[in-house]
Structures are given as C-alpha cells and as structure tokens.
Write a structure and sequence with these properties.
Number of domains: 2
CATH superfamily of the largest domain: Medium-chain alcohol dehydrogenases, catalytic domain
Helix content: 25-40%
Order of helices and strands: EEEHEEEEEHHEHEHEHEHEHEHEHE
CATH topology of the largest domain: Quinone Oxidoreductase, Chain A, domain 1
Structural class: alpha/beta
Bound molecules: NADP nicotinamide-adenine-dinucleotide phosphate
Number of strands: 16
Shape: globular
Number of helices: 10
Distance between the termini: 17 Å
Strand content: 25-35%
Radius of gyration: 20 Å
CATH architecture of the largest domain: Alpha-Beta Complex
Largest sheet: 7 strands, mixed
C-alpha cells in the first residue's frame, strides 16, 4: 500500500484526505517512480475548482522527482535505481501527491546531477511550458523588446531564461508591488527600470506606463502568463509582425475569436501561440508522446550544463492534506514567487 492525498470533491477549501491506496503496477511501456518530491502548479487548484470537469475523486499533482522502482517489459531508457524527474500528466496511474506513480517512460528524464530532488521536482511542467512558449516556435529574436507578464511565477522565470538565450533582448515585466519588483530584479534578473508596478492601475494606465518605459515602442514578443485583462494588455502591446503567446485558455461561454479581419492578430500580422503543455498527450498514439521525452532530455542537458538554472523553490511541507491545502491557497492567491514543492518519501 502507499500513502496519497486524494481530492474527494470539487472544492477549493475542503475535500483533501490522506489515504492508503494500492501501489500501482507499471504497464509494459511504463516506469514506476518512488516519489521523493512533488511540485505544485496552478492547474492543481484549478482542477479542484472544477474548471476542467472530469473525475472528482483522484490524486492530483503533475510533476515529481524520485527513484525508478520498477520498469515495464518494453521500457528501454530507464533501470531500477535511476534518479529521475517526470511529468505525471493525463497518462499516469495517479498524480504525484503519492508515494508511487506509474507513467510512460516518454514522460520521464534522468535527474540532472547538480539538482536536489526538490529542485528537480519543480522543473518538468513549468520548464516544458516555457520552452514551448519561447523556443519551439522561435518566437523571440536577437535584439527583441519583450514583455513577460507573470515573470516571477513558475513558468515566467523559465520564459525569462529562454528569452535571454537570444542576444541583446530587453525584457520588461509587471510587479504587483515593491516586494514583487525586488524579487523580479534580484532573483529573476530583470532591470528595475523595466518593471512596472501594476497594483492599483487600470488596464489603460498599465499600457501607458509600459509605453513610457519603452519610449512609445510596442513589443516584438509578449508572453501572457496571467490571463484576464493582462492578456488584453499583452496582445495590445504587441508590435506589427510580432509574436504573442499565452498559457491561459478562455473558459467562458463566448471566448473571443482571434480570427476576424478587424482583430489585432490579423490587423498586425501577429503570430499567436496558444500554449498547451498537454496537447500531444490527448492523442492515444504513444508515438506522439515522444516529443516530451526529447524536450525533457534537452532541458535536463541545459540544467546539467548550467545553461538553465533551477528556480527559487520553497518547500511547503511533507506529504499531507494540510501541505497540499497550504500550497493551493498560496497559488490561488496568485502571489507565488518561483515554485512550491512538497517532500514525499524522505
Ligand atoms: N496552457 C498550459 O499548458 C499551461 C501550462 C502551465 C501553466 N499554465 C498557466 O499559466 C499561468 C502561469 O503559471 P505559473 O505556474 O507561472 O503561475 P504562478 O507561479 O502562480 O504565477 C504567479 C506569478 O504571477 C504574477 N501575477 C499574478 N497576477 C498578475 C497580474 N495581474 N499581472 C502581472 N503578474 C501577475 C505574480 O506576481 P505579482 O505577485 O507581482 O502579481 C506571481 O509572481 C497559470 O495560470 C497556469 O495555470 C498553463
């Protein structure tokens, strides 16, 4: 048997219980990981809020690190005892708020040597999302003026690192208050004079403030990692032939269309990237999932070479319903700096 935190109902304030479940058995293409640390992501509380529907009773958690503890008969890339990090998303036996998880080997990579298990656990989801937003479509060019809304969050820190891999890129961002600005300056590396404090400002005041900073120039690339009115700000501030990426799909009954002739994307010849970390996992063809293996391996290599650095990480506690509730409350408030992680098997 294994311990796991189960969600029993759609509710943001209750319904989490620590239970004993049978240890899952790997299928032929899967590995079983003894989880050492589990990362937290906003999608975890969004599932609890019922935003995506689906099964009520389940173990949440989309990323982890640990030790491979069993392998299926067709597994080629891993052996029992390998230290790994993984993306237990859609196709896993259960989420990573558990002592064990089985998942396809294509969603697993060897843990970079220099990283602790806690640091490695928070890499997969945010880094792959940031990689998709910035690299896979070459959205950011040398010398570009770039706006990252949400640069202090889990995804934003990696978007910043990937964007800065281009030459002479000037990054601008938004901070709620002076403390957030200090984090962006000291931990992310964005210049103070390129950070606008948005707290208390209207949408049009934010746009004016940003235009003041760039001396009237629009941005070559904008990354919306916040949604809502911030998405409008980013889209509106993207220059002709520029690039706009968002990680926030629209959930409402009448989502805005991006296609009309009169829209900003068409009117300005923009490339628009609606980033979806789980896209290939919706396919039932296991061959389609190999993209994750390639991208996780590449990210592990960048971390190993220190070309990519782990984020500022806070350990919230050890495996318990209270730890999960605390992490979800922090993420729901939208104020997390860097990433949150939970120790599981220590
Ligand atoms: N589509 C996908 O495949 C995918 C994948 C991963 C994540 N996501 C989504 O992408 C979003 C970002 O994820 P994350 O893990 O980076 O979230 P996160 O860690 O919770 O982001 C928190 C950061 O957002 C900033 N923020 C909050 N409200 C803001 C506002 N109005 N304007 C500017 N910045 C603001 C906060 O800075 P301040 O305190 O300064 O406000 C904080 O540093 C989440 O909504 C997540 O669900 C989508």
């Amino acid at each position: 048997m294994m311990k796991a935190v189960v969600m029993k109902e759609f509710s943001l304030s209750k319904g989490l219980v620590l239970v004993e479940l049978p240890v899952p058995k790997p299928q032929s293409w899967e590995v079983r990981i003894a989880v050492i640390a589990s990362g937290f992501n906003p999608i975890d509380w969004k599932i609890r809020a019922g935003k995506f529907g689906g099964k009520t009773e389940r173990v949440l958690g989309c990323e982890c690190s640990g030790i491979v503890n069993a392998v299926g008969t067709d597994v080629k890339s891993f052996c029992v005892g390998d230290a790994v990090f993984a993306l237990p998303f859609h196709r896993s036996s259960n989420g990573s708020y558990a002592e064990f998880v089985c998942l396809p080997e294509t969603l697993v990579a060897k843990k970079p040597g220099g990283l602790s298990f806690e640091q490695a656990a928070v890499i997969p989801l945010a880094t792959l999302t940031a990689y998709r937003a910035t690299r896979s479509v070459s959205s950011c060019i040398d010398g570009a003026n770039v706006l990252i809304a949400g640069a202090g969050g889990g995804v934003g820190g990696f978007v910043h690192q990937f964007v800065k891999m281009q030459k002479d890129v000037s990054v601008y961002s938004l901070a709620r208050d002076a403390a957030s600005r200090q984090f962006l300056e000291e931990k992310i590396g964005i210049q103070r004079e390129r950070i606008l404090i948005y707290g208390g400002l209207s949408e049009s005041e934010i746009k004016q403030g940003l235009m003041g900073m760039t001396r009237g120039a629009l941005f070559d690339a904008t990354y919306d990692l916040v949604g809502g009115t911030t998405k409008n700000v980013c889209l509106d501030m993207t220059n002709y032939s520029g690039h706009f990426a968002t990680t926030l799909p629209e959930h409402g009954p009448n989502p805005p269309a991006v296609w009309p002739y009169s829209s900003i994307p068409f009117g300005r010849n923009l490339s628009v990237h609606l980033v979806n970390i789980g896209a290939e996992l919706d396919s039932d063809s296991r061959a389609t999932w190999t993209v994750y293996q390639k991208q996780l391996k590449l990210i592990a290599e960048l971390l190993e070479k220190k070309s990519l650095l782990p984020p500022h990480t806070t350990i919230v506690g050890s495996l318990s319903a209270d730890t999960v509730q605390k992490a979800h409350d922090l993420l729901h408030a939208g104020r997390v700096k860097g990433k949150l992680v939970m120790s599981v098997n220590v």
